[in-house]
Design a protein that fits this description.
Layout lengths: L8 E3 L10 H17 L3 H9 L2 E4 L17 E4 L14 E5 H7 L4 H19 L4 H6 L4
Parallel strand pairs: 1-2, 2-4
Antiparallel strand pairs: 3-4
Helix pairs in contact: 1-4, 3-4
Length: 140
């Protein structure tokens, strides 16, 4: 079955997502991201639209995932928009849908909200904001 995904999204299919299938979580996340990006200020929207998003069950597929705790909700990888582009290291956002689902205690609306917050948090890192600047904007 082909499910719609956010433009630029790469979907990594899991073996199992507790209490909810990965396709449903991916669809909800995709819907949330599309709606969210439409309401962003133009300059932020332009950055969000060109940044690839990978929807994965949990960390484990990335080259440096052994360094992660495993309970992350999302991750920004690559150079920020403030840094010089490097074709060998393309920026992207990774959303870990099973972790997000578990974090919100398996509630659909809370999941959708947290997908948006996590995406904005990671987008902030792409825009060059550090953890304090992200937190100042209520995205921690």
């Amino acid at each position: 079955m082909n499910i719609p995904v956010f433009p630029h999204c790469v979907e990594t299919r899991p073996a199992l997502v507790r209490a909810m299938d990965f396709e449903t979580l991916s669809r909800w996340a995709d819907e949330e991201l599309k709606a969210l990006i439409k309401v962003l200020p133009q300059d932020v929207r332009a950055a969000a639209e060109k940044l690839p998003v990978s929807m994965e069950e949990k960390p484990g597929a990335g080259a440096f995932d052994v360094e992660l705790a495993g309970d992350e909700l999302g991750l920004f990888e690559g150079p920020s928009a403030m840094e010089e582009e490097d074709p060998a290291e393309m920026p992207r956002i990774r959303l870990f849908l099973a972790n997000l689902w578990e974090w919100v205690e398996e509630d659909e609306q809370d999941f959708r909200d947290e997908v948006g917050t996590t995406f904005l948090h990671e987008l902030g890192h792409y825009l060059g904001w550090d953890e304090d600047e992200v937190a100042e904007r209520g995205l921690d």
